[in-house]
C-alpha cells in the first residue's frame, strides 16, 4: 500500500513464533540506499516483545490478514485478526495507528517503545485455531470472517454490538472494504 506521505509499504503478518505485523519500506520500490527493506513499524508480541502494545496485553499466537485503511479525515490505520491471545477466551480484532519510524531515525533506543502507537481491540464471541480476518467498515465497526470455525461473517463494534451472517463455510477473510466519499 502507499501511505498518505507517499511511502510505499510492504506489510506482512507472521502466524507462529514471530506473531507480529511488520511494515517495511517496499524493497521493490526503493533501493537499499533509499531504505528499501528497512523496518518502519512493528505491531504484535514476538517472543518477549510487545511492539505497539502495552506490556499488560497478552501475547498473540496467530495473526492474519493485515489491512490498511485511510479515512476521509486523514487517519491511517491497519487491522489484523488474532486467532489466540493469552488471557482472552476468543479471537480478537486489532486496529492500530500507522506510525512509521525509520530504523535509522530510532537511534540507540531501538526497543519495543520505538513502535508505540494507538490501538483498539474487540473480542469476538468465537474461537478458531486457523484462518479468519477483519476489515473496518466504519469507525470502530468491523466485518469479521470466522475462518475454520465455519460460522459465517460477523459485524462487530467496539461497544459489543454484533450482527451475524450465518454461512456454513470456511471464510478465510471478508475481502471487503468501504470507501468513504
Keywords:
181 residues, mainly beta, 4-stranded antiparallel beta sheet, 1 helix, 11 strands, 39% strand, globular
Overview of this protein structure:
- The protein is mainly beta and 181 residues long.
- It contains one helix and eleven strands.
- It has one helix at 103-106, and strands at 9-13, 20-25, 39-44, 60-70, 76-85, 92-97, 119-123, 133-138, 141-145, 152-157, 162-166.
- The chain has a four-stranded antiparallel beta sheet with strand order 4-5-6-7, with no helix packed on it.
- The protein is globular.
- The model has no long low-confidence stretch (mean pLDDT 87).
What does this entry show, briefly?
With 181 residues, the protein is mostly beta strands. The chain has one helix at 103-106, and strands spanning 9-13, 20-25, 39-44, 60-70, 76-85, 92-97, 119-123, 133-138, 141-145, 152-157, 162-166.
The biggest sheet amounts to: 4 strands, antiparallel
Helix count equals: 1
Percent strand equals 35-45%
Question: Mind telling me the C-alpha Rg?
Answer: 16 Å
Which strand order spans the largest sheet, edge to edge or round the barrel? Answer: 4-5-6-7
What characteristic shape results from the CA principal axes?
A: globular
* Terminal residue distance: 19 Å
Give the overall average pLDDT.
Answer: 87
Report the order of strands and helices.
EEEEEEHEEEEE
State the low-pLDDT regions, or none.
Answer: none
Structural class: mainly beta
User: What is the helix fraction of residues, given as a range?
Assistant: under 10%
What's the total number of strands? Answer: 11
Amino acid at each position: 500500500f502507499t501511505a498518505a506521505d507517499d511511502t510505499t509499504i510492504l506489510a506482512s503478518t507472521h502466524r507462529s513464533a514471530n506473531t507480529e505485523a511488520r511494515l517495511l519500506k517496499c524493497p521493490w520500490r526503493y533501493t537499499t540506499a533509499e531504505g528499501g527493506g528497512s523496518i518502519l513499524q512493528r505491531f504484535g508480541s514476538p517472543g518477549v516483545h510487545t511492539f505497539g502494545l502495552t506490556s499488560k496485553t497478552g501475547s498473540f499466537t496467530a495473526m492474519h490478514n493485515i489491512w490498511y485503511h485511510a479515512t476521509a479525515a486523514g487517519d491511517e490505520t491497519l487491522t489484523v485478526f488474532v486467532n489466540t491471545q493469552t488471557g482472552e477466551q476468543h479471537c480478537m480484532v486489532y486496529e492500530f495507528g500507522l506510525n512509521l519510524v525509520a530504523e535509522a531515525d530510532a537511534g540507540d533506543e531501538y526497543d519495543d517503545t520505538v513502535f508505540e502507537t494507538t490501538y483498539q481491540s474487540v473480542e469476538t464471541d468465537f474461537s478458531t485455531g486457523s484462518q479468519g480476518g477483519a476489515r473496518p467498515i466504519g469507525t470502530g465497526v468491523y466485518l469479521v470472517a470466522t475462518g475454520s470455525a465455519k460460522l459465517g461473517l460477523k459485524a462487530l463494534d467496539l461497544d459489543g454490538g454484533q450482527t451475524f451472517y450465518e454461512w456454513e463455510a470456511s471464510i478465510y477473510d471478508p475481502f471487503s472494504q468501504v470507501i468513504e466519499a
